[in-house]
Write a structure and sequence with these properties.
Layout (H helix, E strand, L loop, with lengths): L23 H9 L2 H9 L5 H9 L6 H13 L3 H9 L12 H18 L12 H15 L4 H25 L9
Helix pairs in contact: 2-3, 3-4, 4-8, 5-8, 6-7
């Protein structure tokens, strides 16, 4: 079954070229962390124990790109149960500071309609979207994805989770406050 024409326009493409993560000591820290620490850190990126186990089990990673590729591969292999578990751990995207009450009401109504139709929280990766545009992007995404049938939406939600996991992994590797980072 072809899915190209059913996917919404807001779907984020795979980033071109290597991802710039300048501090390789953070990757070394992740690679050498005890398995339970690495697993916990990965669960903060995506609430799928199977995904976290697969990514942690393939350490050490020679480069950040290798880690991100492993993350993508593990995300592509999420079962329906894995997806449900990962979605259950997600929360709604935060609204920018100063958002009007009417926007909160519109977003709440859109989220309620989405959850009623699909049975899980709406997920969207807002990487590269300015805070001023995030509300519009979320509302546009919910409205366009409400037209999906459940199977098409499962595919889109899985792809959004994959993007979220990538962005969170990048943040994990560039943020020196995580527990696996050793000074």
């Amino acid at each position: 079954m072809t899915r190209g024409s059913t996917l919404p326009a807001h779907r984020l493409p795979h980033p071109p070229g290597p991802v710039a993560i300048p501090d390789l000591p953070l990757l070394r820290g992740f690679n050498t962390a005890p398995a339970p620490e690495a697993h916990r850190a990965l669960l903060s990126c995506l609430r799928s124990p199977r995904w976290a186990h697969r990514v942690a089990a393939h350490r050490p990673y020679p480069t950040p790109d290798a880690l991100l590729a492993a993350s993508d591969e593990a995300a592509y292999d999420l079962t329906s149960a894995d997806l449900a578990q990962a979605l259950a751990g997600e929360s709604l995207p935060a609204l920018p500071d100063g958002t009007y009450e009417a926007a909160h009401t519109a977003l709440s109504a859109a989220h309620a309609a989405y959850e009623a139709k699909f049975g899980h929280v709406f997920v969207i990766c807002l990487a590269g979207v300015s805070p001023r545009e995030s509300l519009d992007r979320v509302l546009e995404g919910i409205r366009s994805r409400l037209a999906n049938d459940p199977e098409d939406e499962r595919v889109v939600a899985t792809e959004e989770l994959r993007h979220l996991a990538r962005e969170r992994l990048i943040a994990l590797l560039t943020d020196g406050t995580h527990p696996y980072v050793r000074s």
